[in-house]
Amino acid sequence: MSRASSLRNFPGTRLGAGLFFVYLYIPICILIWLSFNANRSATIWTGFTLDWYGVVLSNKDILRAAANSLIVAVVASVAATLMAIPAAIGMANRKFRGQSAISAVIALPLLVPEIVTAVATLLFFVLVGIPNGLLTVILAHTVFCIPFAYLPIRARLEGMDPRLAEAAADLYATPWASFRRITLPLLWPGILSGLMLAFIISLDDFVITFFVAGAGATTLPVYIYGMIRIGVTPEVNAISAFMLLISILFVSISYLIGRSRN
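The structure assignment produced for this chain is given below.
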């Protein structure tokens, strides 16, 4: 019997796992359910309606914040992925002194509290004289998303057979030709997985955006925060349901691509 099977059959494991998932997902299910509430109150159910989704889709401020979020997420995720590709290839292809330390530095944004990253980024922009706006949000998100794009690419490289590149070299392929014809096609699932993961991390980020965004650079999470300061309404529930749907879609695609071996 494998160790995983023995742990699965340990008394109380299934009950504990079930309670964990109930505690984790019941509030999300309640939020989605209340987004269809006909009552203006977000907690008193009086009937089913889709009106709040129409209200959200017709609100120009919400649409502007959503457009800002999409612009930031697309640019930051693409830039972070383009930086993560050479970093992952350089770290995977050879061993050198200090490699573990560099890997730790790349993964550091995952470990540092986000509020610390936000304050440090804000101070940096103030020191170099860059005014807060959409540009500062994009720059901050790009740096923050690099580890999320890097890890799936690095994991994909670790699973690749190094003998393929060696065989290409034996057939007189140049390093660029070997990368373009062999490494890159095999690496695409990791690249796409990292890109989508970075996109959804950027789209959902609130703390860093809240600190470095200026006038006219409000993203959807920051807009939602401003709405709930005066109370939770069905519009907030509807916006949250939209963002949840997008997050689930991209995380699922990232997971499926990451598992791909073809």
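Interim note for the steering committee: DSSP finds twelve helices and no strands in the chain. The chain has a mean pLDDT of 81.
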